[in-house]
Amino acid sequence: MGKTLAEKIWAEHVVRQADGEPDLIYIDLHLIHEVTSPQAFDGLRLAGRPVRRPDLTIATEDHNVPTMNIDKPIADPVSKLQVDTLRANCAEFGVRIHSLGDKDQGVVHVVGPQLGITQPGMTIVCGDSHTSTHGAFGALAFGIGTSEVEHVLATQTLPLQRPKTMAINVEGSLKPGVTSKDIILAIIAKIGTGGGQGYVIEYRGSAIRALSMESRMTVCNMSIEAGARAGLIAPDQTTFDYIKGKPHAPEDFDAAVAYWKTLFTDSDAKFDVEVDLNADDLEPFVTWGTNPGQGLPLNAVVPNPADFADSEQRTAAERALVYMGLEAGTPLKKIAIDTVFLGSCTNGRIEDLRAAADILKGKKIASSLRMLVVPGSARVRLEAEAEGLDKVFLDAGAEWRNAGCSMCLGMNPDQLAVGERSASTSNRNFEGRQGKGGRTHLVSPLVAAATALRGTLSSPADL
Amino acid sequence: MEKFITHVGTGVPLRRSNVDTDQIIPAVYLKRVTRSGFEDGLFAAWRNDPEFVLNQPQFKSATVLVAGADFGTGSSREHAVWALQNYGFKVVISSRFADIFRGNSLKGGLLTIILDQAEVEAMWEAIEADPATPITVNLEERTVSYGSKSLPFAIDDYTRWRLMEGLDDIGLTLKQTDFIDSFEKKRPAYKPATLPIRS
Fold first, then answer.
1. φ and ψ at A106, to 5 degrees?
2. Chain B environment of A43 (Cβ under 8 Å)
3. Structure confidence by residue, pLDDT tens digits, B47-94
4. ipTM associated with this complex
5. Contact call for residues A360 and A416 (beta carbons, < 8 A)
6. Do residue B179 and residue A122 have CB atoms under 8 angstroms apart?
């Protein structure tokens, strides 16, 4: 029997296999940031262990860096200590780092692809659950905890149980105004936040193949929100074209492409589970609750908890409506928004900024709200400025910030106030995620821009 | 890491599903560079509510957290495990755990046990009826017992052995360095490297 893509990559990275033990898997690339690494470096120091492969490791500052006044010292002393600790650790252990102010600083999952270090067939890890983003290149990429970060630093391997495989087939074509963000929100609503637990998802089908690399990254990014540690897409010409010319693209590009072309699921391979989704029917999606599975098409109304057959889901919906301050039956499009956040590893790349700027061009955002535009990396910011997108955002009344995770998780000063409601292009609508008491609706960049103009949750078709 | 063979303690019923790691410990509490002191951030938002179960005096000294389905979803932050451990929890029971959280917990010696949702609900009722109910977790026999019940749970042999011996994974893997060396010799040249820097 043939192998799935994930099984092929797994098999190519087995360092050691023994009965009754997890497989020891080699890691091709380890991405590091300031929040989940200090205790790992500390562990190495205590044990007197070096970093085994600094040349397969790269660090950047993203989670708690400010997005304003970045030429001044970080104001929050605890954030500053964490960033300073990362810099000192990288210097001590010989790890490449892109610090605040560097053109390659940015959200770790934007930085890897833009440098061309993310390539098909690799195993990639990071102490961050959105590492699944890199799966868009046909890599097996997943988030790990700090103990595992230390393990990879010391050994460049991880002992892992082999995951099961799930295919999600998305056939058809998206209507105008519907994006890859809507595909993944619809998938999570369909299979639930635990639906992918224990699986690696492979996204397949004509609607996936039609997506740009950056749109594919948005889909893979949120695999974890469906419970899957990793999600991937077989590489094709779109992938090869994206990598070509990037700083770390292979020197012998043809040899690499010849290998990359072997990275697909064999026609006689079997997935443990298959799920189908029709792209033709999809509408812009938005979440109404406090987990990413609580989403609906934008034309729907806030659901009534009593309509949920499952008691657990009913209780969760009741709790979510209280937290979100919403009444069952309210049209989602009537919900007024206080803050629009455009950014994050989900939707902070240049295509996302272009799509939103296209809608905002020559218009003003509603006076009732603020809009933060936070590029995913310093390079994305520079690219956007070269295209004049910064002017479009500023003229529309939005704020143009520096790169970082920012309001996606509210670890830096970019936070929602208690009761404040956001339309956010990020990935998590958990209670308090964007600031204590803050209320989050997850949306695509197109919906974010249209919402900014109208003041209530809207799609470009409403303009 | 401390060896885990058996644990006897009382439980606390957390009747919520989808408890994500942002609820277990919000991001603003993740700025420490040490592994201790995270207990003040544990369920920080919910602990403002005097009615929240951890604030109730009868559950103050509980060491077994019995939670709803899909516990530990979201962010990979191992701080969630540290916060639970720093607070005093030794065991978490749920009908479903998120993969990364479960991996982190078993690496760090916080035992996560999967029981059927019906058994979780029965435990909630028993604990609420008598918060002093002793719960015995026996990793060697793979059982959770309370009252007249003894429930088997599944855990793979390797992880069970590692926890019972209190072994850390890195030391075990470093014994396999020969395998890593020979794997690296065969790694293809077209695989990218971060150094030297190219721009």
1. 160, -175
2. 170
3. 999 999 999 999 999 999 999 999 999 999 999 999 999 999 999 999
4. 0.93
5. no
6. no
